[in-house]
Design goal:
This protein has a two-stranded antiparallel sheet. It is 57% helix and 3% strand. It contains four helices and two strands, in the order βααβαα. Helix 1 packs across helix 2 and helix 1 (5-16) crosses helix 3. By secondary structure, the chain is mainly alpha-helical.
């Protein structure tokens, strides 16, 4: 299952406490989170942590860790400085999860040994 960017933006804003689960984000909030999302995704893509098209849909297993990382980049714009450690801890856990989700190289291919 995958999610579109609008759903991702809503999840980030909901996780941050900017909007309630049943609210629609304002255009300004959505634009800010979209900008921070683009910046974060490009950085993570260059690091090799995102194995999908960063302009397309987001796989479900990447939603929570990516939302935590984008929230870390956006919390200052909303004045949540008293919760900085909370956002940093969540982003740290999100980055760890991205490393765990990173695809492993193919190493289990049986090879035939040649003895001399």
């Amino acid at each position: 299952m995958s999610y579109d960017r609008e759903t991702f933006v809503r999840q980030v804003l909901t996780d941050m406490g900017v909007v309630a689960a049943d609210e629609t984000p304002s255009a300004e909030d959505a634009a800010l989170i979209e900008q921070r999302t683009d910046q974060t995704f490009e950085s993570l893509y260059e690091e090799g942590l995102l194995p999908f098209d960063i302009d397309g849909d987001i796989p479900a297993r990447y939603m929570a860790p990516l939302a935590a990382l984008v929230a870390l980049e956006a919390y200052g714009a909303y004045g949540f400085f008293d919760r900085a450690m909370y956002f940093a801890d969540r982003a740290g856990e999100g980055r760890k999860q991205l490393w765990r989700l990173r695809q492993k190289p193919v190493a289990d291919i049986p090879t035939r040994a040649t003895f001399y």
